[in-house]
């Protein structure tokens, strides 16, 4: 459980938004689901997050135990980030935000989003979310196995 201190409200939505409601936190979590794992990967995402904001959001997500990291055994300066189970549990939120966007926003979507929408076609919400979450868990397990010589944080 995430220990919440000094929150402004006892409303669960308000408190969740205190943790996740900034512009960048969910983008970093999205990127982790897209198997982006390093600071450079996040910096090279289409949104071009600035380094100081990225550092702040990674530290925030770490402090709330939504993500963790290991050091790359080939280069100890490189942290390889991953979602913890509490971060993986945010996938339904990302799914619903994306589906809302598809339904209500008149815009050209990124090719990855279009592929994702096609993959979701014909599947019920729960089925798609479970498949995606399990796929990420497998990716995380494989990544952490590759980093066995690292310290997990």
Architecture, according to CATH? Answer: Orthogonal Bundle
List the uncertain runs.
none
Taking the alpha carbons of the first and last residues, their distance comes to: 17 Å
What is the rounded Rg? 16 Å
Full CATH superfamily name: Winged helix-like DNA-binding domain superfamily/Winged helix DNA-binding domain
Largest sheet: 2 strands, antiparallel
| Count of DSSP-assigned helices | 8
Let me know the number of strands: 2
Tally the structural domains. 1
Proportion of helical residues: 55-70%
Description:
- The protein is mainly α and 153 residues long.
- It has a single domain, classed as Winged helix-like DNA-binding domain superfamily/Winged helix DNA-binding domain (Arc Repressor Mutant, subunit A, Orthogonal Bundle).
- It is 56% helix and 10% strand.
- The protein is built from eight helices and two strands.
- It has helices spanning 12-20, 25-33, 39-43, 51-63, 85-88, 91-104, 111-120, 125-146, and strands spanning 67-72, 75-83.
- Strands 1-2 form a two-stranded antiparallel sheet.
- 13% of the residues are buried.
- The mean pLDDT is 91.
Keywords:
mainly alpha; two-stranded antiparallel ribbon; 153 residues; Arc Repressor Mutant, subunit A
Short description:
With 153 residues, the protein is mainly alpha-helical. The protein has helices at 12-20, 25-33, 39-43, 51-63, 85-88, 91-104, 111-120, 125-146; strands at 67-72, 75-83.
Secondary-structure blueprint of this entry?
Blueprint: H1 12-20, H2 25-33, H3 39-43, H4 51-63, E1 67-72, E2 75-83, H5 85-88, H6 91-104, H7 111-120, H8 125-146
Antiparallel strand pairs: 1-2
């Amino acid at each position: 459980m995430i220990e919440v201190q000094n929150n402004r409200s006892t409303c669960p939505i308000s408190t969740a938004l205190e943790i996740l409601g900034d512009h960048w936190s969910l983008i970093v979590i999205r990127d982790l689901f897209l198997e982006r794992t390093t600071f450079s990967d996040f910096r090279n995402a289409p949104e071009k997050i600035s380094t100081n904001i990225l550092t702040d959001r990674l530290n925030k997500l770490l402090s709330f135990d939504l993500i963790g990291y290991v050091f790359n055994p080939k280069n100890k300066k490189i942290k390889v980030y991953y979602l913890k189970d509490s971060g993986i549990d945010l996938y339904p939120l990302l799914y619903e935000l994306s589906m809302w966007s598809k339904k209500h926003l008149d815009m050209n979507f990124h090719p990855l989003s279009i592929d994702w929408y096609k993959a979701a076609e014909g599947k019920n919400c729960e089925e798609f979310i479970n498949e995606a979450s399990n796929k990420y868990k497998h990716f995380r397990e494989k990544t952490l196995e590759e980093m066995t010589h690292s310290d997990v944080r």
